[in-house]
Amino acid sequence: MTTVAGPTSPEHLAEGLRDGDMRSLARALTWVERRADGFEMLMGALLPHAGQAQLVGVSGPPGAGKSTLIGRLAEQFGAVQRVAVLSVDPTSVVSGGALLGDRIRMTDVSLADNVFVRSVATRGTAGGLSLACWDLALVLDAAGYDPILIETVGAGQGETEVRYLADTTVQVEAPGLGDHVQALKAGMLEVSDIVVVNKADRPDSAQTAARIRQTLALGMETGLAPHAFHGQANDTERGWVQPILLTDALVGTGIDELQVRIAEHRDWLCASGVRGDVERRRAARLLNLLVDQGWQARRRAMLEVAGWEDAVEAVAAREREPHAAARRLLQRVFGEGSGS
Question: Which SUPFAM superfamilies match (predicted)?
């Protein structure tokens, strides 16, 4: 853990950000992201005030226009309420921080009074999200931002983690990219609550939407997709009907409807009772991630004691067969009979 300079206590920070103090919010986010001493106390102080915001995950391939779309959405929501954007960027190999590409592209909207934009580095995490996103979302939730838009890094087939964090997932595709096939392979089309075909000014946008609709309908017929049949009114007994929307984020076409659909999905979660399932799924996933992280750290320490460096040197020098070396390490850690 690191230490954040200054005398501010977790309780004072929590009180400050709840009162709308932006310096307290920025400090709290940094404290949590760095896992500074006392961050768990801060999270504990904020926990009773969280749970009100709708977390909206936005995924899609590079070039689909996610950042522009989110900028328009944030601008739209920000006209009447406080909205936050978490932009997950690739990690800089030099600084270890976010490359800030999305924040640069959203400069105009980030200057708006009701909009808060924060870039987060992936730090090598698979799935399009960093573990810090989970905690940062809670801080922003407790600070009164609603909704919280979470833009994933756009990494392709590994980008499914956001479905565990978000209440509502939006998959953004664009005509001509052919990436809806990859999204289908990754499972993102099926698990997304709303599908958006952006860049609707292109002549093949309607055709792309039709292909996606056909693909999802086929998934319904075969029982592979979790949502209700398309083309019918929303029905809490049958499930959520995935809308497939056409937008042109550059000029703002279709953003109104997308905003309405996001709000409708929130209402459906509450009316159908699915919101409780979402909360339990989110809690289970977060606990799994945190336990795995702790176990990885403990495993590394145990392997060091068991002679990890010697084993690496022996395998590198071709003095020991790798499988036998791994089995020997496991036996030293867990006792005889392990690693067979």
Answer: P-loop containing nucleoside triphosphate hydrolases (SSF52540)
